[in-house]
Design goal:
Layout lengths: L2 H7 L2 H60 L5 H16 L3 E6 L2 E10 H14 L4 E11 L2 E11 L5
Antiparallel strand pairs: 1-2, 2-4, 3-4
Amino acid sequence: MNLPARWNQLAPREKSLLGGALAVIALALLWQLVLAPSLLTLRTATAQGLALDTQLQHMQSLQAQAKVLQKQAPLAYDDAVRALNLATKQTLGSTAQISVVAERANVTLQAARADALAQWLAQARVNARSTPLEARITRIATPAGVTWSGTLVMTLPQRP
């Protein structure tokens, strides 16, 4: 039996109940598909805007740092090695050993504190113009805090 014929056989009360049920289903679908996502977007827009502003400020700060680093005069190989050795001794102390081979410095870490490693990386980038080329480090959580062990291979300027 086809749908229009079945509809015509229904009593007026049944037709109105079915029409009401279809209206409720249509309203629920409208809510789920159109209105609920829009309201959620409205509710979270302010927080998302603030998060994006924070990200933008951070990116602009990184851009400014990159421009400053690009404007720095090139560093001689010996000066870079000296600066990297100094930063290693001052910041990482006995938790790191450094060996220089050609235009690379191999740094071996043993239980280096996370904050000291972060500070050392910043000093290596700024003072020695050295960046990590390879990193094979492991994070170790201890009661005293997080430490890192492994090896880093850092770039150095070319020898003359």
